[in-house]
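Tutorial sheet, problem 5. The two components below are modelled jointly, 679 residues in total.
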Amino acid sequence: MTVMNENPIAQAGFQQSADTRRSARVSAETVSTLAVAALCVVLLVGARFISPSLGSWSQVETVLVLGSFLVVLSFGQGLVILTGGLDLSLPAVATLSGILATNWVGASDPGAWCLLPVVLLACGCVGFLSAAGIVWLKVPPFIMTLAMSIIVSSLLLGYTKGTPRGAAPDAAVALMKGHLLGLPAPVLFLVGFVLLGWLFQSRSVYGRYLYAIGTNVEAARIAGAPVTAMRILPYVISALSAGFAGLMLVGYSSGATLRMGDSYLLPSIAAVVIGGSSILGGRGTFLGTVGGAILLTTLGTIISAIGLEFGLRTIIEGAIVLVALLLLREELFQKLGSLWR
Amino acid sequence: MSDIATTGASPPAASVTRSGPAPRHRLWRLTHGAGLIFGLYVLLYALYAYQQPRALDAYAIAALVNNTAPLALAAAGQTLVVLSRGFDLSIAGVISLTNVVLAVYPLDGPGGALVSLLVCLAIGGVVGAVNGWLVAYLRLQSIAATLATMIICQGIALVILNAPGGAVSDWIADELTARLGSVVPVSGLVVATVVGLWLLVRRSDYGVALYAIGADEPAAALSGVNVRRTRFITFVGAGMLYGLAGLMLSAQTATGNPNSGTPLLLLSFAAVALGGTSLSGGRGGLFASVMGAATLTLLQKVLFSSGVSSFYTGLFQGVVLIVAVVFSGLLSRIGERK
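Model answer (structure tokens):
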């Protein structure tokens, strides 16, 4: 932790008086966010040259719908990473909400949507338990969320006896399959979610507390931030957003599986990192993360549209993560370089 | 047994680089060595032997050791990286890749097995070198860089074998799971060799440097440790251990699966944490992680023989993990206070 205290770039976010440095930081983040967004547009338009079916408006809609799961998941992951932690329980919590929504709530009763908040509450409780272990029992976040993930998965396995059944509740299907004003409902939802997420992380006092805690916990405490509450909050929000993503996933695919969340853990971390956040905490914006998530999804759909075999597609995806990381390296280099002086 | 208490504790030389740490109390050393986890293992084994009187015969012990070896070696590799204050996700990719290579290109006979061993070590070494280059020289965050190499390795494994299948050579499948003189399990010897090598390496300049960069990198650099080279070697060594883990896993399953390494990813971190190695680097040891892996595997057996549905194995693994970390944290705080 002492290493992080010496980091002038990260501290600038906390020192409101350091106006010049703060504005420099914000503009740098804006630039990297715009760069990621521009890359998405270039990729989508450029894809036309690969195949005429690509780059169309319907493909943009597909990317946004598929990307909405990742955006929602990586909002929570981003908040946890912002405070210097890591949430490995996201897939398990998303699966928890998916299984509860199909096996417990089900599709039969139209009034059953009232139970969906209860499902989210259960997810929130998992997040709270993780946070409690981290804050009060002083278990490292990595271990605590890993343990919670193993525990929740095992309980779900026991609850379903290995074979989930039931269908997605109508409300979840309506959210993912419906249309409003000529646009797919999930796209409209995504716009609203991104707006709220951005307001929360970058414009609300809670968001600023999280930056302060991620930069330097002790300094935040001295400055009067409610440190305990603000260390618990990201894990609860992360579990809630994972739970919501789980509902979206069952709404989209009309059913739940025991491994439905698994493929989203590493992308949720990758989206945050590609979006320009530091994995050490204290730096990064939600808009950057959204860009990272959409970029990953865009690449995924283009690669699968080319029709390569699954293994080659996986190799290309890995190479892309690597290239994105190397492109962001200058910033990292500066940050790490500043640790030496 | 005397070296168990010290196996995991950082060598005294590492503390030179830290600015005035509290004197290492015996209890403190014990908790951050393998003592705690070794005690837990013995207790659990006593419970297992009580439930299953046959648990003490050579066949049952060999079966248990065979089950433990892949995770133990994977956790051993992960420990090296964690000690240097990093995370290595490529573990899943390397194990899957070596498993697939062994199943698709089986080489028979002892000579073939030797070549296979070298191939596994080479695959792990090359992936480790890429990781090391990305993290040590290009300064990428280890969790992000190894995420990318893991995905690429998984992809290569899928290209080689896109669905479970293939057969590992008979010699590897038979001999590496056999018992020497019908008593000593071969897999146990492999793990013991790795632990033995570690005991030598830990005392070397490299070992001291490893603990030093994990504890306080700028201080280590200022005291003349070659941080980049140390970190690079760490990733290469870790990769080779994952390759060995892939070989032992293949010997046990005797077949190929492009996703065979995935379950070991999170369990390797669980084993490292259970062994008391600090995830923020610089504290812990390889033997403790091997014992952590052994405990996780034994726990599975105990639960099974207690009649607990295998669905709930994870529940107990998770709870044991949290309790062990909390308990070891408490002990170390008591130790530091004295």
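Marking note: The domain at 4-337 of chain B is CATH 1.10.3470 (ABC transporter involved in vitamin B12 uptake, BtuC). Full credit if you identified this.
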